[in-house]
Amino acid sequence: MTVAGTRYDQIGMSYARTRRTDPRVAAQIHDALGDARRIVNVGAGTGSYEPPDREVVAVEPSPTMYQQRPAGAAPVVRASAEALPFADGSFDAALAIFTVHHWSDMPAGLAELRRVARRQVVLSYDAVVEQDFWLVQDYFPEMAALDAGASGYTSRAIARTLDVRRVDPVMVPADCIDGFAACFWNRPEAYTDPAVQAGISGLARLDPDVRARATEHLRADLASGAWDARYGHLRGLTELDVGYRLLRAGD
């Protein structure tokens, strides 16, 4: 069992409830796929962002995750990113969405993407940017220490393995419907919801006492107006760059 598989068997049981495809993020991902028709989605989870009009094979190590995929979703192969069970050049494109930070060996997994597909599309985050996000900086600083070597999850680090041709910021809309870590940057009340927390790996993996203590801190700041005094200006923005990056690599 891989690190990602074991991790999501423990924390991914309600993932499909709060993690939904946001159409604006999806449009950016699908554009990056270009003319690719046969796609492997590595670390596919519940199937968010898989293009419905193309041939997709999903790779997911966690039964807890792939059992939540909707009816009619792409077929799933249970495997890890570091050892894809496909011949060289089997696909037009390899897709990796919000997954590389869970791999036990990111360079090995990226090399596998490059081996099995001529094009690679990766949505990740620059950890050094995300760590400045108010949720991490003011309330849950322990999130920054969860992934060893988190500074390696940057566009530059990924480009050491992949032939990255283009890096685009993925702006998070104010009304984003996908519950990833920075989704609720202007709706802080959401981060006190246990269901939302369960769908964010960085929160779900925290020690329960740490998570409870920080959640109460946030609740108190919302009730007193302290959060709005510091960050209330965010409520009026339509989108924000919180460090997510879409990388296009290969041909």
Written account of the structure:
Strand 2, helix 4 and strand 3 form a beta-alpha-beta unit. The protein has one domain: Rossmann fold. The relative contact order is 0.16. With 251 residues, the chain is α/β, with parallel strands linked by helices. The strands form two sheets. A seven-stranded mixed beta sheet has the order 3-2-1-4-5-9-6. The radius of gyration is 18 Å and the shape is globular. The chain starts with a helix and ends with a strand. The longest helix is centred in the C-terminal third of the chain and has 17 residues. It contains twelve helices and nine strands.
Number of helices: 12
- Topology pattern, helix = H, strand = E: HHHEEHEEHEHHHEEHHHHEE
Specify the biggest β-sheet.
Answer: 7 strands, mixed
CATH architecture descriptor name: 3-Layer(aba) Sandwich
Number of structurally distinct domains = 1
Average pLDDT number: 90
Instruction: Give the strand content.
Output: 15-25%
Helix content: 25-40%
Cα-atom Rg, whole angstroms? Answer: 18 Å
Number of strands: 9
Structural class: alpha/beta
As residue ranges, the low-confidence spans are none
CATH class: Alpha Beta
Give the CA-based shape: globular
Terminal CA distance reads 32 Å
Instruction: Record the strand order, biggest sheet.
Output: 3-2-1-4-5-9-6
- CATH topology descriptor: Rossmann fold
Q: For this structure, what is the CATH homologous superfamily? A: Vaccinia Virus protein VP39
